[in-house]
Amino acid sequence: MKQTILLPVLLSLSLFLSSCGGGQATKAGMGAGGGAAAGALIGQAIGHNTEATLIGAAVGTMLGYMIGNEMDKYDRQQLNHVYERGVSGQTNSWRNPDSGNSYQVTPQPAYTNPSTHRPCRRAEIQAVIDGKAETTYTTACRDENGHWQLQN
Fold first, then answer.
1. How large is the angle between the packed helices 27-47 and 50-70, nearest 10 degrees?
2. Collapsing DSSP states into helix, strand and coil, what is residue 126?
3. Which terminal CB of the chain, N or C, has fewer other CB atoms within 10 Å?
4. How far apart are CA 17 and CA 60, in angstroms?
5. Can you tell me the distance from the alpha carbon of 23 to that of 124, in angstroms, rounded to the nearest whole number?
């Protein structure tokens, strides 16, 4: 039953995402598709039921789309460096040499997440992507391996 429900949902999601770029594969669409698949696998592994799988797919889609749309590997490495070594309240800046996008990230002090008991940091990100200024706030927490992972 799980596979009967899951396969059409993931197939529909893939078709929707592939149609978003007007027939062209975009970083956002590829990121969302990869995020959906990874989220579904993680949701199934953790929850062992269809609901957990679908929730994992939805969360993975959202995070994959955001990261795939705005940041490539270089940008994610820079952002991870800010979370790891950035001085609280001090802005760190970079310009991606390939995309031309620029980022200014100001991390806040680390804190312990009360529900997971893991270190987390919030940051303000000011980005200029394709000439458009955007500001967002993100939170990253350390995973079980000590790596910073963006939270939803």
1. 150
2. strand
3. N
4. 13
5. 34
